[in-house]
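hey can u check if this looks right to u? its 316 residues, i copy pasted from the old doc so theres a chance i mangled smth
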Amino acid sequence: MASRIVPAHTLPAPTAGMHQAQRPTGVIMALVVILFAFVAQSVITAIALVTQSFVTAPPGGPRTADMLSLMATRPGFLISLLGFGASLATLWLWVRAKERRPFATLGFERRAVAGAQILRGLGVGLLMMVLCVIVPLITGQASLTWAAPDASALLFIGAMFLGFLLQGSTEEILTRGFLTQAVARRFGLLVGIAVQAVVFTLMHGMNPGMGPLPILNLLLFAVFASCYTLAEGSLWGICAMHGIWNWAQGNLFGVAVSGQNAADSFFTYESASGASTLITGGPFGIEGSLVTTVVFLAGSALALRAYRRRRALQQI
């Protein structure tokens, strides 16, 4: 029996891109490609971190061999983000060499509106993070103080913005782009959204402070991100949104990013004594908060409404 392939015209942008591949990637192989992409990232990052530890170690002094300790330093944290470039390069090679289609078909074909969507994504991501942080502050569950970063810290914070843009964009391209397209081509849009949401959550499953609410919020973010891409018909905006969401969380407000603390930030976020982890997010950071749950649910509803409006206009 021939396998069912969902027609391209029934899939909204940017989920129909796999139909432009001369040699499309199946669902299982798409998961393998994502796995190899992260293996490449891990190897390149480990090599860079070890090299950095040898370069920065004092002559004749001890060299740190613990990878977690290396990643906790300023250059180590930045290297761990820039390592996502290896994942992106792996996917680019696969799309170009095996599938034989333009990389832009992953969700970057709407170049005429790219600038506006990027700016809107930055604004949306920053606004959503402000909402998540301000609730614990006004309810007395947390405090925010000026961290007084020096010149070197400011330089690092600026570099981290670029690093988080790369990291966020890579995750979006792999999941909301490549994986969603592979699954949607075979099983339809809803299954594509569901599969990428599960894979995205598993990608973060080993982060410190993981628990039921952080898992739920990771799933909700993945659903929101899919709705956002459907509303805009591309990945431009969600890449910007994801990048500034992580940067504002860690380097603007000083909140742990998925359980990982940034080395420097403009502000320091601290939970009050006896504060509820349901509001503050606990050790996982604000992404483990019920406030974030509500924000993601509201964001998904608004993005879905915008998508339906766009579809309705296209059918007129």
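Residues 151-187 form the longest helix (37 residues).
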